[in-house]
Amino acid sequence: MGLSDSVTVLPGVGPKRADALADLGITTIESLLTYYPFRYEDLRVKALNEIGDQEQVTLKGIVAAPPTLSRFGRKKSRLNFRLLIGQDVVPVTFFNQPWLKNNIEVESPIMVYGRFDANRKQLNGMKILSSGKNDPMASVYPSNSGIRQKTIQQLVVAAWKQYHTEIVDLIPDHIKTHYRLLDRAQMIHDMHFPKDLAAAKAARRSAKFEEFFRFQMQLQMLKRRDESQAGIDVDYDKERLQRFIHTLPYELTDAQKRVVNEICADMKRPIHMNRLLQGDVGSGKTVVAAICMYAAITGGYQAALMAPTEILAEQHANNLQALFEGLPVNIVLLTGSTKPAVRKEILPRLASGEINLIIGTHALIQEGVDYHRLGLVVIDEQHRFGVAQRQALRQKGDNPDVLAMTATPIPRTLAITSYGEMDISVIDELPAGRKPVTTRWIKSAQIDSAVQFVLRELAAGHQAYVVTPLIEESEAVDMKNAEAIYERFSAYFSPHHYQVGLLHGRMKNDEKDEVMQAFKNNQYQVLVATTVIEVGVDVKNATVMLIYDADHFGLAQLHQLRGRVGRSDQQSYCILVADPKNKNGVDRMRVMTETNDGFVVSQKDLELRGSGDVLGKKQSGLPDFKVGDPIADLTMLSVAQDEAKKLTSTPGWQSMPENQALVSYLKQAKEHAYMFD
Predict the structure, then answer these.
(1) Domains and CATH numbers, the chain
(2) Which of 207, 346, 577, 643 is the most exposed place for a label (fewest CB within 10 A)?
């Protein structure tokens, strides 16, 4: 007998009920006992003078008059009776529970649970309680159509009675004592059967920590496993690397220098590097990546850079060609559009090692693309690639070092959860000379003045983006139409001899590339586009970003779009056109106008969006915790991570007696069993 037993061992759980429980994620006794209530009903009887307005309470009294039942609408009913409590009479109303009439007898004692209206001195009834012994706190669980609330409550009681002696502590004693956490058995008991709200609160605190700690232990085990794999010791030429850095057309920021040192030190270690390079838009991640790739090349290795789009891969190739001019770096570009004859010429040169830097899209991981001595893999905008794609590139060499880059600043919450198994380097400083983008929020009625402002910027020799959320009109959502805006702007700017381009997601890739290249070459002075330009080429001459219906975008997306301008020493502007219908929309606009800090924006975005996805199943969002909220409980999450790091870095921790229950638990977690292989 153990907590891993199937729930089918409990009375009343046959195949049909087992399937319904499985839909709730309940398959074992363990999963049932940790299927915690999301709220509690305080069933203690209170005096009328102790009750606040709209408080859910239990009232005990005598039925003062026969109940009356009235029907209204279709299948709707109202049941009324009066409850005598001492000298007070409280009207009670039940909606759509006509069968209760038979349970209410005049001059009989009764206990009613419901919501109290203090102004009207009446109770909106929810349920009638038995006059026998009731638990002071009733647990309320998430349920579905196949399982009633009462059934879950009964099964939890049965599981506790039969298995509570099998519950052992997972958190080591020293951690539990330090943070004043409950024993696991006490925690589980008080989560389901608390004596009062204070007991429930204490249990939930311990349950949150345990959940975070178990998760962080799994991440740290994953990281330790990764580090245990033999990696590449890149013995790069420090002098050649320094000479290259001195040839750069600009001085590195302190943040760039720090990050380069972190990554190069990691590359020198004979273990596999799995590092995330994050920085705000325009912070200079590409230059950092170039330095690290050159380090690999000076050490006799090849480097590969994988980008999510062909146009971005081409931009990287052009920029790196310029940076490495005159150096022994043989660069090629390989994408899906590479002609077969060119591809046939590239592949043997790559396999022989003649090509030491290759840039491309997913074409880099296709069958037949072989490397001679791949030492460093750089993945740009890593969230655009799935786990399988990133793994495939790793497997092209002898476990090469991996540097993933993202221009989306990651808030600490997300860094601790979704990226907890990676080392993270942060560029938190913009290059010298860059001016913060001035952001303004205007209402749609003010659009004419914004267009006039765009005209003035064009007259100064600059260019402008105009972004809209939709390509076609939608009846469901009142948004502008990209084609309509294009026609409007063309009609307005053409007399002034300015050309307007159109870019949207339904265009073919080569059409998109052509339009974007024309904009970059200043053949178009205004580019009307959908969000396909969110991650795109740099157009240093663009100084205005005008975004229609900005309240329909997420904060992170707005920040990415804003980052398309402000790429030079020219003052740039972002104009948000929005008529938000709710507080959330207003809040987003205010955040954008108040800060240019991508890390602040991303944290606010996370707070406004809330938590989401399960680790390993999706490429973005937060793990789906049962009781903990990684946003609201960030401090506890950080503490749990620190304790997991300390424990897993302790030599021989897995063999220590006090950790055996935890080790056993982690080994039994099927979805993470590979961590212990």
Answers:
(1) 7-39+137-194 (no CATH), 44-129 (2.40.50.140), 238-427 (3.40.50.300), 438-609 (3.40.50.300)
(2) 346
Q: Residues 453-504: pLDDT tens digits?
A: 999 999 999 999 999 876 555 533 334 577 888 999 999 999 999 999 998 8
Distance (Å, rounded) from C-alpha 381 to C-alpha 674? 28
Question: How far apart are the C-alpha atoms of 246 and 284, rounded to whole Å?
Answer: 16
630: which 2 tokens?
């990684």
Nearest residue to 236 (alpha-carbon basis) of 291, 289, 297, 287:
297
Cβ-proximal residues to 210 (8 Å cutoff; 6+ apart), any chain: 170, 171, 181, 184, 187
CB-based burial, 518-533: b 16+ in 10 Å, e otherwise = ebbeeebbbbbbbbbb
Terminal Cα-to-Cα distance of the chain (whole angstroms): 26
In the chain, what percentage of residues exceed pLDDT 90?
Answer: 52
Rounded to the nearest angstrom, the gap between the alpha carbon of residue 519 and the centroid of all alpha carbons in its chain is: 33
DSSP 377-437: EEETTGGGS-HHHHHHHHTTTTS-EEEEEESSPPPHHHHHHTTTTSEEEEE--PPTTPPPP
CA distance 338 to 345: 11
| Contact indicator for 216, 644 with CB cutoff of 8 Å | yes
Burial 402-417 (b: 16+ CB within 10 A, else e): bbbbbbbbbbebbbbb
CA dihedral 313, 319, 324, 330 (to 10 degrees): 30
Residue type for position 192? H
Q: Give the three-class secondary structure for 113.
A: strand
Counting Cβ atoms within 10 Å, is residue 423 exposed (0-12), middle (13-18) or buried (19+)? middle
What gap in Å lies between CA 276 and CA 95, rounded to an integer? 56
Q: In whole angstroms, what is the distance from residue 89 CA to residue 87 CA?
A: 7
Contact assessment for residue 613 and residue 622, using Cβ atoms and an 8 Å cutoff: yes
What is the reported pTM? 0.67
Rounded Cα gap, residues 182 and 191, in angstroms: 11
How do residues 237-284 score in pLDDT, each as one tens digit? 999 999 999 999 888 999 999 999 999 999 998 888 888 898 877 788
Which of these, 259, 244, 260, lies nearest to 323 by C-alpha position?
244
Calpha distance 80→66 (Å, rounded): 9
Which tokens in the block code for residue 268? 């020198």
Q: 586 and 568 in contact (C-beta within 8 Å)? A: no
Q: Tell me: the pLDDT tens digits for 519-548?
A: 989 999 999 988 666 556 678 899 999 999
Separation of alpha carbons 417 and 157, rounded Å: 33
Closest listed residue to residue 479, CA positions, set 548, 545, 577, 528: 548
Residue ranges with strand state E in 87-175: 88-95, 109-117, 122-129, 137-140
How far is Cα 402 from Cα 305, in angstroms, rounded to an integer? 10
| Furthest C-alpha separation in the chain | 100
What is the three-class DSSP state of 306? Answer: strand
Q: Any alpha helices (H) in 553-597, and if so which ranges?
A: 555-562, 583-594
Amino acid at 365: I
Residue 622 predicted with pLDDT over 70: no
Q: DSSP per residue over 508-553, as a string?
A: -HHHHHHHHHHHHTTS-SEEEE-GGGSS----TTEEEEEETTGGGS
| 2 touches 166 (CB < 8 A) | yes
Amino acid at 289: A
